[in-house]
Structures are given as structure tokens and as C-alpha cells.
Amino acid sequence: VNRPGIGLADPDAMNRAAVGVPSLRRSPLEARALRNTLLTLGAWVAAIIAGVPLVSVLYMLIVRGGSRLNWEALTELPPAGFEMGGGFGNAIVGTLVMVGMAALISVPLGVLCAVFLAELGPDKKLANAARFGAKTLTGLPSILAGVFVYAAVVLVTGTYSAPAGGIALAVLMLPTVVLTAEEAMKMVPRITKDAAYGMGCTRSQVIWKVVLPTALPGILTGVMLAVARAAGETAPLLFTALFSSYWLIDGSQVALMAPTASLAVLIYNFSGMPFENQIELAWAASLVLVMIVLIVNVTSRLIGQRKV
Amino acid sequence: VIALEDARAPGSIAGPPSGWDYLADRVFRRLAQAGAWLILLLLAFILWEIGAKAGPGIRDYGLSFLTSTTWDVGREQFGILPAIWGTLYSSILALVIGGFFGVVMAIFLTQDFLPPRLAQVFRTTVELLAAIPSVVYGLWGIFVVVPAIRPLANWLHEVLGWVPFFGTTLSGPGLLPAAVVLAIMILPTVAAVSQDALRLVPYRVKEAAYGMGATRWEAILKVMLPSAATGVFGALVLGFGRALGETMALAMLIGNSNQLTLSLFSPANTLAALLALNFPEAGRRETEVLMYAALVLLAITLVVNVAGEAIMAYASRQVGRK
After folding, report:
1. For the whole model, what pTM was predicted?
2. pLDDT tens digits along B186-197
3. Nearest CB to B25: which of A202, A238, A239?
4. What DSSP line would sit under B74-102, residue for residue?
5. CB-based contact (8 Å) between B2 and chain A?
6. What does the DSSP 8-state code read for residue A86?
7. A51, A255, B72, B309: which one has the fewest Cβ atoms less than 10 Å from its Cβ?
8. Which B residues 58-97 touch A at CB under 8 Å?
9. What φ, ψ does residue A275 adopt, rounded to 5°?
10. Percent of all residues in chain B with a pLDDT value above 90, rounded to a whole number
């Protein structure tokens, strides 16, 4: 930087020396400058180390999962113990069905709650309590959502089932949907709403015709993030949907109230098996699961960016 | 009066809300209110359901459930002290590793170290780390992390075997690989929340430090971090809360052995892993005590998470006042 006079051998410098003002020139070998450089270096190293696991996970998924990923793996049923071949077609269907159910439950309820939090009574006691409740639910360990649904649904219906799994995932999605939808609705400019009120709209009309359409990209981002998270959840499905080696829909029969397969539980089950075939399938299923999660994730980001 | 008549003129679409509009408005507002109640009811229902199902277990085993170390289904003796110990131990280890990297990452991303493009690359990396499902981390841990750290672990055991932390060999699953994977999983949480905390510090505070001749790291360590300390602490508490409840990676990596151990390489157990492994095949009695264990896990995570949220709320109020 151009600071006139500093560090030049001029009368000015002699004056400064005379009154004891230190040199203002940066000396890179001075202890504190050196410490600064070292810490910067350390931060770079730490940041790169933090990126290593992601690279390693993606590399393993592509190498080990990619080698087994073929049409058979995507469409066949899971193999039994010593069987060769097979796939995880039913698990893909199961994951999609259960995540779909979870979204159908959690999105309408979550957005409804967010409408109250953002528009109808942001400062009411109920809103503060609900906001606190949603934040607390965000921290709920996913396995406890499974325990809860086991007690509330599985024990009542008497069977492991896809709806039970869907409800467990919905419990986990709900707080994310509520909190992100609230944030999105709060971003809608006040003047836009005031214009609608000025034209004589009721509050519901303002919400339906102005707030929700304007906040839609933000709400969708939150929903898709929640979907991406739910698709990868294993713990809540372990004892709500369990696992199955058969199709959810076989011909005309829909086995909705029966144990249902999911990619995540398949990976968990197969990872502990002593058979090479199953382990290969676990890697291939992981690749498919991560691709689903990443596609949803990236889409949500694109939607979120468009609004700006 | 003239305007009103004009508004109702045939062909005009303008008009005051009809009776139906008012009714719809009322119904919708009630529904939204019910939605807000629903969150609270759901939370209460979860607490009640798990609490009620844990009732028989609490009645029969009482507090000795928390201090006993045996888990023997055949003799109906149940205790979760090893699982509580393993939960806390693995989470603290993960917090030390993941917390350090998370906070460094947050500093790295907020304190103008990088050109915007490159910062976006690192930010995306951290976000993708959070997007990978935990069961995939578990699989990766079994086939990558365990083989990678086993030679180092066994060398440490041979050389420093008398240190309690290195008291056993690492034969496969164990505390350290579990904690390493757990650290990776909480890093994004810590990094994201700490970034928010650091961004809340007004820019002029840093400029004042620079203006006094502080180097970048002097400004970070002596001005920025202390100013954001409450928020960063809240980030660590929330990360700790996540680590306590994480299930799958631990169920796959920790070895599920009910023992009290200090050794980093020994298999251990956690509450969440205990639930994941024993629930599917549990009989009536075991289900009751597992519900009790779930209640203990719920209580621990609730306390930690509520504390974390309270700290974050305090931190943002503090900044607001400045």
C-alpha cells in the first residue's frame, strides 16, 4: 500500500527516530508476523484435512459402488446369504414411498404452523413456545423418533409397516420444514403485504395470494433439505419399517401394512454380513442413496438461489 | 358512495370480501393456530409415550439401572452405565476433534482468508459433509477408517501400552474410529453455527483491531473470537448434542460391548447404539428397559440441546445490545 513517507530515508524518518516512534514497515520475520504466517498455514492445513473425508467417501463410493452398479442391482430383489447377484430394487421403491409419505404429512402441517409463527402471531406466547418446541425437536436423536413411533404406531397396529416408517421420518422432517418456512415467509417485504391489505384483503387472502407464492422458493428449499435428510435416515426405520426382501407392490397386491425395505436399512444390514456379494451391494446402494440425497440437495440450492 | 357503486359495477372484478371470504379467513387462521399447537402436542406426546412405556422398567429397576454394568437378557439383569459412559466418552472425543476443525473452518471461511470463489468451494465441502447419510459414514468407517488407523493404534499400544488411553489393541471396531467418524459428522454443525456467531460481530470491531496494528490472527484470537465466544460455545454445545444422539455410525463402528473402559481402542457401547441393536429382537421385558434407556437418552439430549439453544439466544441478544 502506498503510504507516502513511511520507511523512506528522509528527514521525516529521522524525526520519528528522535521521538521514539517505531518503524512502521512490516518485517515478516518479527515474532508476531511469523506467528501470524504459521497460524494461517495451520488454518489452510486444517481446512484441507477437513475436506479429506468427503473426497475419500466419494472416491470409495464411485470405485467400490460404481463397479457393482448395473441394471440388475437397481431392479432385482436382495439376495439371501450365499446367493450371488441380486440387487436392491425394492429398497429404492421403499425409500421413495416412505419419504413421499413423510413429505405428505410434514409439509402441509409444517407450513401451516409456520404461517402462524411468521404471520398470524409472531410474538404470541403460543408462537414462542412452538418455535422453542420446533428447535427442541430438531435436536431429537433420530433413533428416538423410531422408539416413539414404535410405541405409538407399531404397537398399536401390531405390525412393522411403511406408514410407520413414513410417520417416523415425518417427525424428523417437521421441525426443519417449520423453521425454514418461517424464515422464508419473514423475508417477504412488509410493503408487499401492506399493499394487499390496503386493497381490502383478509389476512388469509394476503397469506395465500401474496406471502405463500412469494416465499415459495424459500419454503421449497427447506422442504427439499428435509427430504434429503430423511432419505438418508436409518435409525428411525430400524424398528418401524424394519426390512423386507420382497416388493412393496407385487402385481396387484400392495403390501402396505407389512415390513418394508429401504436403502438405508439395507446398507446397514449388508455392511455387517460376511459375504462379499452383500458388501458390494451395500456400496452400490450407498452410491445410489448418496446420489439421491445430493441431487435433491443441489436442486434445493438452485431453487433457493433463483429467488435472490 | 360513488366509488362503492363503481366498484360493484357489472364487469368489475373489484369488491369487498364476501361472507365466504370471512369464513374461510377464520377457518384458516384457526387451522394455522392448530398447526402451532401440533408442534407442542407432538413434543408432549413423544415425552409421554416414551415415559409411559418406560414406566415398568423404572418401577422394577429404579436408579440401579443407571449404575449397574451388566446387560443379561437371560437373567433379566439390566444396567446402562457402560452405555452412558460410552455415549459421553465418544461424544467428548468427537467434540474435541470435530469442534477444533469446525471452529477453525468457521474462522477460515469468515475472516477473509479466501477469494470468494474458493470460499464457496470450502463452504460447499462442509455442507456436503453434512449431507452424506450417517449409514454411509458407517460403511466408510468400517472399510476405510478402521484399517487406516489400526497400524497407528497398535503401534501406540505397543509403545505406550501403560497409558490407560492406549491400554488395548484395536482389533476392529472401537471407540477411536467411532469418535473420528462422529467428529466428521458434527463438524458441519459446529462450523455453520460458529460462522453465524462470527458474522454477528460488527465489522468495525475488527477494523478497530486492524487500525491499532494487530495482525490478522491477533485480531481473530484477541478480538473476534472473544466477541463471538458465547455463540461459538453454543455451537460446540449443539454439536455435542448431535454427537450424543447419533446412532448408525456408532452402531456400526463402536463394537457394542458393554464395558467401562478408558482405552481409545477398546470396543464400547452407546445408548443410541444399544437401542438400535437390541430393539428389533427384544422381548417384552427387554423392550421395557430399552424404553427406560431411551428416556435417559432423551433426557440427556434435551438438556444439552435446550442449553445450546439458550446460549445461542443469549449470544444474539448480547450482540443486539452492543
Report:
1. 0.87
2. 999 899 989 988
3. A202
4. TTTEE--HHHHHHHHHHHHHHHHHHHHHH
5. no
6. -
7. B72
8. none
9. -105, 130
10. 35
